[in-house]
Design goal:
Mean pLDDT: 93
Strand order of the largest sheet: 2-1-10-11-12
Largest sheet: 5 strands, parallel
Number of helices: 8
Distance between the termini: 6 Å
């Protein structure tokens, strides 16, 4: 039997819990894990007044922590869509990523005024991209991402020689983790949700990075489970 791989989870606590539960349930066993959230997610201020918004866009479930009052919602990711439904939104479209959402909107009728619910840091400036398509939009920050230091335990695993798995779900997390390590161990299996994430990791560390077949949480979970499952070989 090969040496069990240590899973290094840098997602916020709730997201890490959901992922770990799925991995354990599918494998039918526990896995060695080191938790080191690289960002802390908190809601910001009062929930915005949605008056005047014809369509809501949300690219993260973290953005939705108030009522959507039946408004049409365009989402990125299944978790975001589920959060929108639970908040009373009418989910009209769920895209794999922000660029796919923008491409879909290009071939749709004018949606009217768009309100984008976002965090402190975003990879794509959606209102700016929509303005170039003659669609009126503005953004409102509904959550913030506070950077957290990589723990000593996580750094020891990622810089060490024992086999480990590092999933990366955003360019920002790839950058923060990449900047926090002095070197990456030879047996660290890095799995990125998109090529954009992988590019940041390679730029920061020079190390290899696998990209999953589609930019979804489900694809990431499947690939992590497959990587963990090789422990039994």
């Amino acid at each position: 039997m090969s040496t069990p791989k240590t899973l290094v989870l840098t997602r916020p606590e709730q997201s890490a819990d959901q992922l770990l539960d799925q991995i354990r349930e599918t494998l039918g066993r526990d896995v060695p894990v080191v938790r080191s959230p690289i960002m802390k997610i908190t809601a910001t201020g009062d929930w915005p007044d949605l008056t005047g918004a014809d369509v809501i866009i949300a690219t993260s479930a973290h953005a939705i922590h108030g009522p959507l009052d039946g408004r049409p919602v365009l989402c990125v990711g299944a978790r975001t869509a589920e959060a929108a439904r639970q908040a009373g939104g009418d989910v009209r479209h769920c895209a794999l990523d922000a660029m796919s959402l923008l491409a879909w909107m290009e071939i749709q009728p004018d949606p009217g005024f768009v309100l984008y619910l976002r965090g402190t840091h975003v990879a794509t400036d959606i209102p700016d991209a929509l303005a170039k398509r003659s669609i009126k939009a503005r953004s409102v920050q509904t959550y913030q991402q506070e950077d957290l230091p990589l723990t000593d335990a996580a750094r020891t695993v990622l810089e060490g020689e024992r086999p480990s798995i590092l999933p990366l779900f955003s360019p920002r997390s790839a950058r923060l983790v990449g900047q926090a390590v002095d070197r990456v161990g030879a047996d660290v299996h890095v799995i990125a949700i998109s090529s954009a994430v992988a590019e940041v990791w390679r730029a920061e560390t020079g190390g290899p990075c696998e990209v999953v077949s589609s930019p979804t949480g489900a694809a990431m979970a499947d690939r992590i489970i497959a990587a963990c499952d090789t422990d039994l070989a």
